[in-house]
Amino acid sequence: MERRQDRKVLQILMGLLLGILAVGFAWYSAKERLEQTSNQGRKHKFGATYMTMNNPFYEIIDDEIRSQLEARGDILITRDPALDVDKQIDQVREMIDRQVDGIFINPVDWKRIGSALKEAAEAGIPIIVVDSDVFETELAACTIVSNNYQAGVQCARHLLQHKDGGNILLLTHSAAKSGLDRIQGFSDTIKGYDKFHILSEGDCLGQLERAMPVTEELLNQYPEADIIMCLNDVAAMGAMAALKDAGLEGQITVYGVDGSPDGKSMIEAGYMEATAAQFPREIGREAASAIYRILEGEPVESSIQIRTELITAENLEIYGSDGWQ
Fold it and tell me: Is residue 17 included in any domain, yes or no?
């Protein structure tokens, strides 16, 4: 009798144990499926910081990157350091803390940003550099820039073809490699032509509100100047504002780089000679494509250069005076 009861108890216990194991297995399987589904549907989160959003060029790049990411259901967090490299370093660190899947950066200072990029690389976060190089190129998974040196060459070649000589002022941005390359391309091309003289240069950070007083000061020092080469169209707008105040509008030849709507309008109005056009939407598309290829384990070029094209009064109708290329 006691044996039968013991067997019955044992059967009950075995049944309970099997039931518990079955429930546990079912729970584990369901949890595993849920985690797999969650991981498959997890949104990627990316960060972006540009030297300043006080420039429509960067707004266009950011809009293009954002549209590409959001089309896949992913998220882009954009920050504006307002030309403050320390603030940009803090923004990169914020993105590291938020465990983003990738960082798009346009450096305020191409050398000083290196410490923050090293921290991101050590955290395993891929870095896509846009528009302007960083000094420590090995920290970037991919660098996507316009052919900035060629942009300066294109402006200089046009000048050589259309003027017999002249006295040149340069508006620069020494902390940005893109600005350095554009001015270098221009200067190298002018070199050796004895009738062209580079009188001086002024650093305006590529900003209109800085370019205007810098131009005024340079014109006071060098009244013989009759050509101004600007690292971008924003600086060219500041230069032309200074020329207007001085009563010299249309009397001094002005070159820029960007192909911005404002630049093209000034060419159409006859106040600006030419602008070497960039293609910010193409830069944005390439940047978004590069980050996804990296995340998917596909090979990506370490450096991608986007062409520039010179816009003048003669070919302006091809590009139009409204919108970007």
Answer: no
Pairwise CA distance, residues 295 & 291, whole Å: 6
84 and 206 co-located in one domain: no
Q: Print the SS3 string covering 61-112.
A: HHHHHHHHHHCCCCEEEEECCCCCHHHHHHHHHHHHHCCCCEEEECCCCCCC
Reading the block at residue 257, the tokens are 């780089």
Cα angle 151-157-158, degrees, rounded to a multiple of 5 = 95
Series of mean pLDDT values for 10-residue runs along the chain (325 residues): 47 45 39 40 90 96 98 98 98 98 98 98 98 98 98 98 98 98 98 97 98 98 98 98 96 98 97 98 98 98 98 96 90
pLDDT reported for residue 321 = 86
Q: Are 278 and 246 in contact (CB under 8 A)?
A: no
Task: Tell me the C-alpha distance between 109 and 34, whole Å.
Answer: 45
Residues 242 and 208 placed together within one structural domain of the fold: yes
- For residues 85 and 108, membership in a common domain is answered with yes
Whether residues 155 and 257 share a domain: the answer is: yes
Q: Which residues constitute the domain of residue 80?
A: 45-146+280-306
